[in-house]
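S1.2 Input.
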Amino acid sequence: MRAGAGPAPGRNLGAVPTRRREGDVMSAYDRLPPELRAWLAQAALPWSPRSALRAWRGALRRTGCAEAAAARLSAIEAGQLARL
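S1.3 Output.
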């Protein structure tokens, strides 16, 4: 092995970069609209409060109805589950 080809001393080869979340996730969840929190309670996938709110707002803009927005989120989730 040539000099300098190995890992730096004390460096973890299995280290995985992590993403830092801004703010308190539970507080963000608590601030979500009640209809969205109800939908998230039955969701099959773990949604972040930020992504759920973004999808919810987009669905509300398109449909104008909380029930239809929840159906849209279910369709998005079903598409994600089909890819697994």
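S1.4 Remarks. The two ends are 41 Å apart (CA to CA).
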